[in-house]
Amino acid sequence: MATNYRDIPELQEYFSMVENGGKKGFKRVSKWQKKLVKFVKKVFENEDLIIKTDQLSKYLSLQKYFDFQLFEWEKFIFTLHICTFRQDGLPRFPDLFVMVSRGAGKNGYLAFEDFCLISPYCEIKQYDIDICATAEEQARTSFDDIYNILENPAHTKKLKRFFYWNKEVITGRKNKSKIKYRTNNAKSKDGLRSGKVDFDEVHAYENYDNIKVFTTALGKKPHPRRTYVTTNGDVCDGVLDDLIEKSQKILDGEIKDNGFLPFICAIDDKEEVHDEENWYKANPSLQYLPNLLEETRKEYAEWLENRSSSSDFMTKRMNWRQGNSEVELTSWENILATKQEVEAPIQGEMAVIGIDYTKINDFASAGVLTKRGAKFVWKQKTWVCKNSADLPRIKYPLHEAEEAGELEFVDAPEIDTSLIADWIEEQMQTYSIQMTTLDDYRYALMKTALERLGISYENKNIKLIRPSDKIKVEPIIDSAFRNHNIVYGDSSIMRWYTNNTKKVKSKKYGNYEYQKIEAKSRKTDGFFAFVGAMTEHEKIPEEQQGSDILPVFIM
């Protein structure tokens, strides 16, 4: 028989706090939480779900061993993630994503959740739990929270009847379930038989390599679960951004949830930071933690004095990614806004080609720049030499760009320039190329390959770019980013290239110039090819018949 969610205090109390606010609830609530409450209510109203209230009560009784009581938001997600089931007996929300600001208690919550699942109250045998993070210290955080409870003299004698433990593994005696902490070494995890996997500080994951190893081991035990906990972070276009995008689409009704429960707390706009009442949007525990509130006030004052050196305040305390305004090319929001669709090119559409590479035995990129009204549309191709010494340092998943057709690996001592010329020749079958751009000191290697296409200095259809040309076009590019007029399509590698670029004051010219943030592992070739093409953007008319931009993907 289905459970009436209105009879469950752990749900109703949280619903009331979000919907009523003020003295009866949270001082301020983010849009994410308002959408979540509507989403959860709709799920219960449309599905016959069962909440195992007896089991929930037993689990919550274990709070007596912790030095804290769960807050309302923690009881809410615990009820849904651990104790809510479909009619077929499977968990309704096996996957939980929690993004709350620093100090909210996410690791304490994770420790409680895992402690419950290896306790005698969990009936599943050998329900092993792996706590994963990119660094051992972080992976140990929730593990050590449980270990310290077991080592507490006030509880040790009693708990020895139900658990045995050491500094590497904690085991429930009745169900033989184990908790272990794991670090970011995906190669050594084959053969896992996890019941539940925790990913701590997901913002640090740049790709899915380690996550895939652990999640593909799920399903061998009943009720497979995943819990992702994190603050915001500075890794752009990584796992965290995917989870946030997925959460938004679920809460906006664009996709089915597929058992994924998104719990996100963050300010709704960066300007909200200046009103202290809005801080509660990012930290649902803050109204109960006066010491944390005082520390947040102190950090806010320091951030106001030096926003660059105190950028962690916005990222970690407000869950709003700030970046470093002194070096970033543009905001991540603006880079993400390049993810727009565009209609197929028109036969004979005017365009400019841009080419860039640092070393021909490393990376090389070329692209086609067109215009659609005020929009600058860029389509690129990258070639990567398999013998590049920098490949082991690169964390970006190059194989994904290869699968998307935007990247080609070259198994040779260096990238043959004829490969670039062949790609340009293909573009010439569709586009009317008005100009090709290339740095003047890279022209020598490309000269012969381009001349067979009729592209030469003598034919006046190649522009050899100088540093001063890039500096002159920087204000135009900056304005286009801010107004979301740069279109890459769904090109993850172009977002990566762009995010790897910084602006610095030119000592010679006084204006901004582009530089790499880091020379070896953060490539910029695709973006610099785009900049080169932009120096000749006036060669392309803004209006070309039959061209329209489709709506921006909402992230």
Automatic annotation (TrEMBL):
One Pfam family of this chain: TerL_ATPase
Protein's UniProt name: Terminase large subunit
InterPro entries: TerL_ATPase, TerL_nuclease, Terminase_largesu-like
Domain Terminase large subunit-like ATPase per the UniProt entry, residue ranges: 72-246
Signal peptide as annotated in the record: none
Terminase large subunit-like endonuclease domain: residues covered: 254-536
